[in-house]
Write a structure and sequence with these properties.
The chain has 65 residues and is mostly helical. It has one domain. The chain is built from 3 helices and no strands. The protein has helices at residues 5-18, 29-35, 38-55. Helix 1 (5-18) packs across helix 3 (38-55). The protein is globular and about 35 Å long.
Length: 65
């Protein structure tokens, strides 16, 4: 997903909003991205769905890039 910086930024915003502390997720966004944690995958999926709703695009063109 590194090639789509806007989608990555949206996923980070969703991740940070949904998992604001270690009580919610054990690692920050960058580490979650590196290890493809379930929390990261959920944030990416939410970002893809949001993009699809806002643009009318396919929500899963290349899931988790």
């Amino acid at each position: 997903m590194m090639q789509d910086q806007r989608l990555r930024a949206a996923a980070r915003a969703i991740y940070d909003a949904c998992y604001p502390s270690e009580d919610w997720a054990p690692v920050g966004f960058d580490e979650a991205e590196r290890y493809r944690t379930v929390h990261y995958r959920q944030a990416v999926g939410a970002a893809q769905q949001a993009r699809a709703e806002l643009t009318g695009a396919d929500p899963h063109p290349d899931l988790f890039g």
